[in-house]
Design goal:
Blueprint lengths: L1 H7 L4 E5 L3 H12 L3 E6 L10 E4 L2 E4 L5 E2 L3 H9 L4 H4 E4 L2 E3 L5 E3 L7 H8 L6 H16 L10 H7 L4 H16 L8 H12 L8 E4 L3 H4 L1 H10 L3 E4 L6 E4 L2 E4 L4 E2 L1 E4 L3 H8 L6 H8 L6 E7 L10 E3 L7 E4 L9 E7 L5
Helix pairs in contact: 1-2, 2-11, 12-13
This protein binds flavin-adenine dinucleotide.
Length: 346
Protein backbone atom coordinates (compact mmCIF):
# COMPACT_ATOMS: atom_id res chain seq x y z
CA UNK A 1 0.00 0.00 0.00
CA UNK A 2 2.96 2.36 0.56
CA UNK A 3 3.87 1.94 -3.10
CA UNK A 4 0.31 2.68 -4.20
CA UNK A 5 0.35 5.77 -1.99
CA UNK A 6 3.62 6.86 -3.65
CA UNK A 7 1.94 6.54 -7.04
CA UNK A 8 -0.59 9.09 -5.87
CA UNK A 9 1.82 12.02 -5.68
CA UNK A 10 1.39 14.36 -8.64
CA UNK A 11 -1.34 12.36 -10.37
CA UNK A 12 -4.40 13.92 -11.90
CA UNK A 13 -6.49 10.83 -12.42
CA UNK A 14 -5.90 7.14 -11.76
CA UNK A 15 -7.79 4.09 -12.93
CA UNK A 16 -8.16 0.90 -10.95
CA UNK A 17 -9.20 -2.22 -12.85
CA UNK A 18 -11.18 -4.52 -10.57
CA UNK A 19 -13.31 -3.78 -7.51
CA UNK A 20 -12.20 -6.77 -5.46
CA UNK A 21 -10.58 -6.14 -2.09
CA UNK A 22 -7.19 -5.39 -3.70
CA UNK A 23 -8.60 -2.89 -6.20
CA UNK A 24 -10.70 -1.15 -3.57
CA UNK A 25 -7.74 -1.03 -1.16
CA UNK A 26 -5.71 0.67 -3.91
CA UNK A 27 -8.58 3.03 -4.71
CA UNK A 28 -9.00 4.03 -1.04
CA UNK A 29 -5.26 4.64 -0.71
CA UNK A 30 -5.19 6.81 -3.84
CA UNK A 31 -8.35 8.71 -2.89
CA UNK A 32 -6.83 9.41 0.52
CA UNK A 33 -3.90 11.08 -1.32
CA UNK A 34 -6.36 13.36 -3.09
CA UNK A 35 -6.17 11.50 -6.42
CA UNK A 36 -9.35 11.32 -8.49
CA UNK A 37 -9.88 7.58 -8.92
CA UNK A 38 -12.07 5.72 -11.37
CA UNK A 39 -12.65 2.06 -10.54
CA UNK A 40 -13.71 -0.20 -13.42
CA UNK A 41 -15.46 -3.40 -12.40
CA UNK A 42 -16.54 -5.96 -14.99
CA UNK A 43 -19.24 -7.55 -12.85
CA UNK A 44 -22.27 -5.85 -11.33
CA UNK A 45 -21.08 -6.24 -7.75
CA UNK A 46 -18.27 -5.14 -5.47
CA UNK A 47 -15.89 -7.48 -3.69
CA UNK A 48 -14.69 -9.91 -6.38
CA UNK A 49 -13.88 -13.27 -4.86
CA UNK A 50 -14.91 -12.05 -1.38
CA UNK A 51 -18.39 -10.64 -2.00
CA UNK A 52 -21.97 -10.90 -0.84
CA UNK A 53 -24.38 -13.08 -2.78
CA UNK A 54 -28.10 -13.15 -2.04
CA UNK A 55 -29.87 -16.49 -2.31
CA UNK A 56 -33.64 -16.69 -1.75
CA UNK A 57 -33.52 -13.32 -0.01
CA UNK A 58 -30.76 -14.39 2.40
CA UNK A 59 -27.47 -12.51 2.28
CA UNK A 60 -24.60 -14.99 2.08
CA UNK A 61 -21.05 -14.85 0.74
CA UNK A 62 -19.68 -16.36 -2.43
CA UNK A 63 -17.38 -18.27 -0.09
CA UNK A 64 -16.92 -18.54 3.66
CA UNK A 65 -13.87 -16.49 4.66
CA UNK A 66 -11.67 -16.34 7.73
CA UNK A 67 -9.33 -13.43 8.34
CA UNK A 68 -6.52 -13.51 10.88
CA UNK A 69 -5.14 -10.88 13.22
CA UNK A 70 -2.02 -10.67 11.05
CA UNK A 71 -4.07 -8.95 8.31
CA UNK A 72 -3.07 -5.62 9.82
CA UNK A 73 -3.39 -3.61 6.60
CA UNK A 74 -6.88 -4.97 5.92
CA UNK A 75 -7.98 -4.04 9.43
CA UNK A 76 -6.41 -0.59 9.13
CA UNK A 77 -8.20 0.04 5.82
CA UNK A 78 -11.50 -1.19 7.25
CA UNK A 79 -11.20 1.36 10.04
CA UNK A 80 -10.27 4.09 7.56
CA UNK A 81 -13.46 3.57 5.55
CA UNK A 82 -15.60 3.45 8.69
CA UNK A 83 -16.09 -0.32 8.99
CA UNK A 84 -15.30 -1.12 12.63
CA UNK A 85 -13.45 -4.47 12.80
CA UNK A 86 -14.34 -4.76 16.50
CA UNK A 87 -18.05 -4.72 15.69
CA UNK A 88 -18.08 -6.54 12.35
CA UNK A 89 -15.66 -9.38 13.10
CA UNK A 90 -15.85 -12.07 15.76
CA UNK A 91 -12.29 -12.25 17.16
CA UNK A 92 -11.38 -15.65 18.58
CA UNK A 93 -8.04 -16.80 19.99
CA UNK A 94 -6.35 -19.29 17.64
CA UNK A 95 -8.28 -22.54 17.89
CA UNK A 96 -8.47 -25.83 15.98
CA UNK A 97 -11.46 -27.84 17.13
CA UNK A 98 -12.50 -31.05 15.38
CA UNK A 99 -15.66 -33.11 15.50
CA UNK A 100 -13.57 -36.14 16.57
CA UNK A 101 -12.52 -34.46 19.83
CA UNK A 102 -9.14 -33.03 18.83
CA UNK A 103 -8.98 -29.56 20.35
CA UNK A 104 -6.15 -27.04 20.42
CA UNK A 105 -6.82 -23.56 21.76
CA UNK A 106 -4.43 -20.70 22.42
CA UNK A 107 -5.28 -18.84 25.63
CA UNK A 108 -5.05 -15.05 25.74
CA UNK A 109 -1.45 -15.05 26.96
CA UNK A 110 1.51 -13.24 25.39
CA UNK A 111 3.45 -15.07 22.66
CA UNK A 112 5.08 -17.64 23.02
CA UNK A 113 3.17 -18.69 26.15
CA UNK A 114 -0.09 -18.76 24.17
CA UNK A 115 1.38 -21.18 21.64
CA UNK A 116 3.10 -23.41 24.19
CA UNK A 117 -0.10 -23.62 26.24
CA UNK A 118 -2.06 -24.44 23.07
CA UNK A 119 0.31 -27.23 22.03
CA UNK A 120 0.93 -28.82 25.43
CA UNK A 121 -2.68 -28.45 26.51
CA UNK A 122 -4.25 -29.77 23.29
CA UNK A 123 -6.62 -32.72 23.50
CA UNK A 124 -5.44 -35.72 21.45
CA UNK A 125 -1.95 -34.30 20.88
CA UNK A 126 0.75 -36.31 22.66
CA UNK A 127 3.47 -34.69 24.74
CA UNK A 128 6.11 -35.78 22.22
CA UNK A 129 4.08 -34.31 19.32
CA UNK A 130 3.78 -31.00 21.18
CA UNK A 131 7.52 -31.10 21.84
CA UNK A 132 8.15 -31.90 18.15
CA UNK A 133 6.05 -28.90 17.09
CA UNK A 134 7.96 -26.64 19.49
CA UNK A 135 11.31 -27.86 18.13
CA UNK A 136 10.04 -27.37 14.56
CA UNK A 137 9.09 -23.74 15.22
CA UNK A 138 12.34 -23.03 17.09
CA UNK A 139 14.32 -24.49 14.21
CA UNK A 140 12.41 -22.36 11.65
CA UNK A 141 13.06 -19.26 13.72
CA UNK A 142 16.78 -20.12 14.00
CA UNK A 143 16.88 -20.24 10.18
CA UNK A 144 15.11 -16.89 10.03
CA UNK A 145 12.10 -18.66 8.49
CA UNK A 146 13.99 -19.41 5.27
CA UNK A 147 13.71 -22.85 3.70
CA UNK A 148 15.17 -24.33 0.54
CA UNK A 149 13.58 -23.05 -2.67
CA UNK A 150 11.17 -25.50 -4.34
CA UNK A 151 10.72 -27.46 -1.12
CA UNK A 152 7.17 -28.75 -0.62
CA UNK A 153 5.29 -28.69 2.67
CA UNK A 154 5.30 -32.51 2.70
CA UNK A 155 9.08 -32.56 2.48
CA UNK A 156 9.44 -29.88 5.14
CA UNK A 157 7.20 -31.82 7.55
CA UNK A 158 9.05 -35.08 6.78
CA UNK A 159 12.41 -33.46 7.40
CA UNK A 160 11.23 -32.21 10.78
CA UNK A 161 9.57 -35.53 11.71
CA UNK A 162 6.15 -33.91 12.12
CA UNK A 163 3.81 -36.88 12.37
CA UNK A 164 0.57 -38.16 13.88
CA UNK A 165 -2.17 -35.75 14.94
CA UNK A 166 0.31 -32.91 14.82
CA UNK A 167 0.54 -33.41 11.08
CA UNK A 168 -3.03 -34.43 10.22
CA UNK A 169 -4.86 -32.05 12.58
CA UNK A 170 -2.53 -29.06 12.73
CA UNK A 171 0.05 -28.49 9.98
CA UNK A 172 -1.65 -30.10 6.98
CA UNK A 173 -5.07 -28.47 7.56
CA UNK A 174 -3.38 -25.12 8.23
CA UNK A 175 -1.50 -25.43 4.94
CA UNK A 176 -4.59 -26.39 2.92
CA UNK A 177 -6.68 -23.62 4.53
CA UNK A 178 -4.11 -20.86 4.16
CA UNK A 179 -2.60 -21.80 0.79
CA UNK A 180 -5.56 -23.70 -0.73
CA UNK A 181 -3.01 -26.14 -2.12
CA UNK A 182 -2.41 -29.80 -1.28
CA UNK A 183 0.64 -30.28 0.95
CA UNK A 184 2.52 -32.29 -1.70
CA UNK A 185 2.49 -29.27 -4.02
CA UNK A 186 2.32 -26.36 -1.56
CA UNK A 187 5.40 -24.18 -1.24
CA UNK A 188 7.14 -24.72 2.10
CA UNK A 189 8.45 -21.14 2.01
CA UNK A 190 4.97 -19.64 1.73
CA UNK A 191 3.69 -21.94 4.46
CA UNK A 192 6.60 -20.94 6.69
CA UNK A 193 5.82 -17.27 5.98
CA UNK A 194 2.27 -17.92 7.22
CA UNK A 195 3.60 -19.54 10.40
CA UNK A 196 6.04 -16.65 10.91
CA UNK A 197 3.44 -13.90 10.47
CA UNK A 198 0.48 -15.70 12.02
CA UNK A 199 1.59 -18.11 14.71
CA UNK A 200 4.96 -16.91 15.90
CA UNK A 201 4.35 -13.16 15.99
CA UNK A 202 2.38 -11.18 18.58
CA UNK A 203 -0.54 -13.09 20.11
CA UNK A 204 -3.16 -10.98 18.30
CA UNK A 205 -1.68 -12.02 14.93
CA UNK A 206 -2.91 -15.60 15.38
CA UNK A 207 -6.47 -14.58 16.30
CA UNK A 208 -9.15 -15.89 13.95
CA UNK A 209 -11.49 -13.18 12.67
CA UNK A 210 -14.84 -14.37 11.34
CA UNK A 211 -17.30 -11.94 9.80
CA UNK A 212 -20.52 -11.29 11.69
CA UNK A 213 -21.96 -9.73 8.56
CA UNK A 214 -21.71 -10.46 4.85
CA UNK A 215 -18.42 -9.76 3.10
CA UNK A 216 -19.81 -6.83 1.11
CA UNK A 217 -20.48 -4.78 4.25
CA UNK A 218 -17.13 -5.69 5.74
CA UNK A 219 -15.02 -3.61 3.36
CA UNK A 220 -16.05 -3.37 -0.34
CA UNK A 221 -19.18 -1.26 0.15
CA UNK A 222 -17.80 1.23 2.72
CA UNK A 223 -14.61 1.44 0.63
CA UNK A 224 -16.61 2.36 -2.48
CA UNK A 225 -18.48 5.02 -0.50
CA UNK A 226 -15.16 6.41 0.77
CA UNK A 227 -13.83 6.70 -2.79
CA UNK A 228 -17.03 8.32 -4.08
CA UNK A 229 -17.06 10.81 -1.19
CA UNK A 230 -13.61 11.97 -2.37
CA UNK A 231 -14.68 12.61 -5.93
CA UNK A 232 -13.96 9.14 -7.32
CA UNK A 233 -16.22 6.97 -9.46
CA UNK A 234 -17.06 3.28 -9.21
CA UNK A 235 -18.20 1.90 -12.56
CA UNK A 236 -19.94 -1.46 -12.20
CA UNK A 237 -20.54 -3.65 -15.25
CA UNK A 238 -17.74 -1.87 -17.14
CA UNK A 239 -14.91 -4.25 -18.08
CA UNK A 240 -11.61 -2.87 -19.28
CA UNK A 241 -10.84 -4.68 -22.51
CA UNK A 242 -8.15 -2.46 -23.97
CA UNK A 243 -5.23 -0.67 -22.36
CA UNK A 244 -2.60 1.25 -24.33
CA UNK A 245 0.47 3.20 -23.25
CA UNK A 246 0.15 6.74 -24.63
CA UNK A 247 2.06 9.96 -23.90
CA UNK A 248 1.07 11.11 -20.41
CA UNK A 249 -0.42 7.84 -19.27
CA UNK A 250 -2.67 4.98 -20.34
CA UNK A 251 -5.73 5.00 -22.55
CA UNK A 252 -8.46 2.60 -21.44
CA UNK A 253 -11.07 1.10 -23.79
CA UNK A 254 -9.94 3.54 -26.54
CA UNK A 255 -11.44 6.37 -24.49
CA UNK A 256 -10.20 8.25 -21.40
CA UNK A 257 -6.51 8.68 -20.54
CA UNK A 258 -5.34 8.13 -16.95
CA UNK A 259 -1.96 9.07 -15.47
CA UNK A 260 -1.67 5.62 -13.95
CA UNK A 261 -3.52 2.32 -13.97
CA UNK A 262 -3.62 -0.23 -11.18
CA UNK A 263 -4.49 -3.64 -12.60
CA UNK A 264 -6.14 -5.41 -9.68
CA UNK A 265 -7.80 -8.35 -11.44
CA UNK A 266 -7.08 -11.87 -10.36
CA UNK A 267 -4.06 -13.41 -12.11
CA UNK A 268 -6.39 -15.58 -14.20
CA UNK A 269 -7.95 -12.38 -15.61
CA UNK A 270 -5.00 -9.99 -15.74
CA UNK A 271 -3.26 -11.67 -18.68
CA UNK A 272 -5.63 -10.23 -21.28
CA UNK A 273 -4.56 -6.71 -20.22
CA UNK A 274 -0.87 -7.37 -19.51
CA UNK A 275 -0.43 -8.82 -22.99
CA UNK A 276 -1.21 -5.33 -24.33
CA UNK A 277 1.63 -3.78 -22.31
CA UNK A 278 4.97 -5.12 -23.61
CA UNK A 279 6.86 -3.52 -20.70
CA UNK A 280 5.10 -6.00 -18.41
CA UNK A 281 6.16 -9.15 -20.30
CA UNK A 282 7.94 -10.49 -17.25
CA UNK A 283 4.83 -10.19 -15.08
CA UNK A 284 2.79 -11.86 -17.82
CA UNK A 285 5.17 -14.82 -18.01
CA UNK A 286 5.06 -15.17 -14.24
CA UNK A 287 1.26 -15.32 -14.05
CA UNK A 288 1.02 -17.57 -17.11
CA UNK A 289 3.01 -20.13 -15.12
CA UNK A 290 0.43 -20.20 -12.30
CA UNK A 291 -1.66 -23.32 -11.71
CA UNK A 292 -5.04 -23.04 -10.01
CA UNK A 293 -6.82 -24.98 -7.27
CA UNK A 294 -10.56 -25.15 -6.59
CA UNK A 295 -12.27 -23.94 -3.41
CA UNK A 296 -15.96 -24.41 -2.70
CA UNK A 297 -18.37 -23.34 0.02
CA UNK A 298 -21.50 -25.44 0.28
CA UNK A 299 -24.38 -23.94 2.30
CA UNK A 300 -26.50 -26.49 4.16
CA UNK A 301 -29.88 -25.46 5.56
CA UNK A 302 -31.00 -27.43 8.62
CA UNK A 303 -33.89 -26.84 11.04
CA UNK A 304 -33.26 -23.86 13.32
CA UNK A 305 -32.57 -26.17 16.27
CA UNK A 306 -29.37 -27.46 14.61
CA UNK A 307 -26.13 -25.79 15.66
CA UNK A 308 -22.45 -26.65 16.05
CA UNK A 309 -20.62 -26.63 19.39
CA UNK A 310 -18.36 -23.87 18.00
CA UNK A 311 -18.55 -21.27 15.21
CA UNK A 312 -15.95 -23.28 13.25
CA UNK A 313 -15.53 -27.05 13.46
CA UNK A 314 -12.98 -29.22 11.65
CA UNK A 315 -13.68 -32.56 9.99
CA UNK A 316 -10.89 -34.93 9.10
CA UNK A 317 -10.99 -37.52 6.32
CA UNK A 318 -14.33 -36.36 4.87
CA UNK A 319 -15.31 -34.11 1.98
CA UNK A 320 -15.36 -30.75 3.76
CA UNK A 321 -12.46 -29.68 5.98
CA UNK A 322 -14.25 -26.97 7.99
CA UNK A 323 -17.90 -26.27 8.73
CA UNK A 324 -19.05 -22.86 9.99
CA UNK A 325 -22.22 -22.27 11.97
CA UNK A 326 -23.62 -19.14 10.32
CA UNK A 327 -26.37 -19.07 12.95
CA UNK A 328 -23.68 -18.31 15.54
CA UNK A 329 -22.22 -15.65 13.27
CA UNK A 330 -25.22 -13.38 12.84
CA UNK A 331 -26.82 -15.44 10.05
CA UNK A 332 -29.99 -17.56 9.98
CA UNK A 333 -30.11 -20.29 12.63
CA UNK A 334 -29.53 -23.80 11.25
CA UNK A 335 -27.44 -22.56 8.32
CA UNK A 336 -24.05 -24.23 8.00
CA UNK A 337 -21.27 -23.35 5.54
CA UNK A 338 -19.07 -26.31 4.59
CA UNK A 339 -15.71 -25.40 3.09
CA UNK A 340 -13.97 -27.75 0.66
CA UNK A 341 -10.47 -26.48 -0.09
CA UNK A 342 -8.04 -27.56 -2.82
CA UNK A 343 -8.05 -30.62 -5.06
CA UNK A 344 -7.44 -34.13 -3.75
CA UNK A 345 -9.14 -37.38 -2.82
CA UNK A 346 -11.82 -35.45 -0.91
C1 LIG B 1 -14.52 -19.61 -1.83
C2 LIG B 1 -13.34 -18.76 -1.40
C3 LIG B 1 -12.93 -18.77 -0.08
C4 LIG B 1 -11.84 -17.99 0.32
N1 LIG B 1 -11.49 -17.97 1.63
C5 LIG B 1 -10.52 -17.13 2.05
C6 LIG B 1 -10.23 -16.99 3.42
O1 LIG B 1 -10.83 -17.65 4.27
N2 LIG B 1 -9.27 -16.11 3.80
C7 LIG B 1 -8.59 -15.36 2.88
O2 LIG B 1 -7.74 -14.55 3.28
N3 LIG B 1 -8.84 -15.48 1.56
C8 LIG B 1 -9.78 -16.34 1.13
N4 LIG B 1 -10.07 -16.44 -0.20
C9 LIG B 1 -9.25 -15.68 -1.15
C10 LIG B 1 -9.73 -14.23 -1.26
O3 LIG B 1 -11.12 -14.19 -1.52
C11 LIG B 1 -8.99 -13.60 -2.43
O4 LIG B 1 -7.59 -13.68 -2.19
C12 LIG B 1 -9.33 -12.13 -2.59
O5 LIG B 1 -10.71 -11.91 -2.57
C13 LIG B 1 -8.72 -11.67 -3.92
O6 LIG B 1 -9.03 -10.31 -4.07
P1 LIG B 1 -8.53 -9.51 -5.32
O7 LIG B 1 -9.08 -8.16 -5.20
O8 LIG B 1 -7.05 -9.67 -5.44
O9 LIG B 1 -9.11 -10.27 -6.60
P2 LIG B 1 -10.63 -10.53 -7.01
O10 LIG B 1 -11.46 -10.69 -5.80
O11 LIG B 1 -10.61 -11.63 -8.00
O12 LIG B 1 -11.08 -9.18 -7.70
C14 LIG B 1 -10.78 -8.89 -9.03
C15 LIG B 1 -11.94 -8.11 -9.61
O13 LIG B 1 -11.56 -7.68 -10.90
C16 LIG B 1 -12.68 -7.78 -11.76
N5 LIG B 1 -12.16 -7.84 -13.13
C17 LIG B 1 -11.47 -8.83 -13.73
N6 LIG B 1 -11.13 -8.49 -14.98
C18 LIG B 1 -11.60 -7.23 -15.17
C19 LIG B 1 -11.55 -6.32 -16.27
N7 LIG B 1 -10.93 -6.62 -17.41
N8 LIG B 1 -12.15 -5.11 -16.13
C20 LIG B 1 -12.77 -4.77 -14.96
N9 LIG B 1 -12.85 -5.61 -13.89
C21 LIG B 1 -12.26 -6.81 -14.00
C22 LIG B 1 -13.36 -9.06 -11.30
O14 LIG B 1 -14.72 -9.09 -11.70
C23 LIG B 1 -13.20 -8.96 -9.79
O15 LIG B 1 -14.29 -8.30 -9.18
C24 LIG B 1 -11.13 -17.22 -0.63
C25 LIG B 1 -11.54 -17.23 -1.97
C26 LIG B 1 -12.64 -17.98 -2.34
C27 LIG B 1 -13.06 -17.96 -3.80
Amino acid sequence: MDRVADLGHGLSGAAVVGAGWAGLAAAVTLAEQGVRVTVFEASRSLGGRARRVSIDGVDLDNGQHVLVGAYRETLRLMLKVGADPGALLLRLPFELRYADGFHLRAPRLPYPLNLLAALFGARKLTFSEALGATRFLISLRARNFRVLPDCSVTRLLDEHAQAGALRTRVWEPLCVSALNTPVERASAQIFVNVLRDGLTAAREASDLLIARTDLGRLFPEPAAEYVKARGGAILLGVPVRRVARVPGGFRLNDAEIFSCVVIACGPHQAGQLLVQLPALDEALSAINAFAYEPIVTCYLKYPESVSLPAPMLGFSGGIAQWVFDRGRLGGPKGLLAAVISASGAH
